[in-house]
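Board notes (copied after class):
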Amino acid sequence: MTDKEFIETQVDSEKIFGGRLLQVYRDTVTLPNGKISAREYIKHPGASVIIPYLGDRKILLVRQFRYPVRRVMIELPAGKTDGGENALDTIRRELAEETGYRSDHFVEIGTIHTCVGYSDELLHLFWADNLVPGETRPDPDEKIELLPMTIDAAMEEVYSGRITDAKTLIGLFWAEKIINEDMFAKRLIGLNRFIRLD
């Protein structure tokens, strides 16, 4: 089957909610079989997430409370794209704001569609090394704790079920492969800029 046989065509679109971050739509679509159906979804401005490598097999995670799940979560630093920013601008800003660290050495690993069943959110996943510490500048409504951790300790958090955030799970599986497999890291270097593993 070709992709064309799966495509749904928008007939009409109605914005049913507009918030500071999210826009919710209800569209009428024509299905490939000619029937009409409805699709509800969230438009998201996009975001970036980073694997900050501290050297010596350590990465930097953060702990913060996430209201929708009513839990303190362990995550990789991340943030939404502000108007006019590209993905790299977003992650440079978020890395500095959330962790205080800065870097001039970034590698974009890839993109992640986080929840295709109900949102168009696209995350850009980056690696950064050669980090320089500085002062954090979290948003006024954020409380963040820095959590440096070896990749082995971080993966234990994954396998024990204590880390459940999807972007962080994906980022940590990438980080484990980059840190533990020289040939993989070298291949990624060839595709992007470079990764320094001290």
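Comment from the instructor: Strands lie at 9-18, 23-30, 36-43, 47-55, 58-66, 71-75, 78-80, 105-113, 122-129, 145-150. Helices lie at 87-99, 151-159, 166-180, 182-191.
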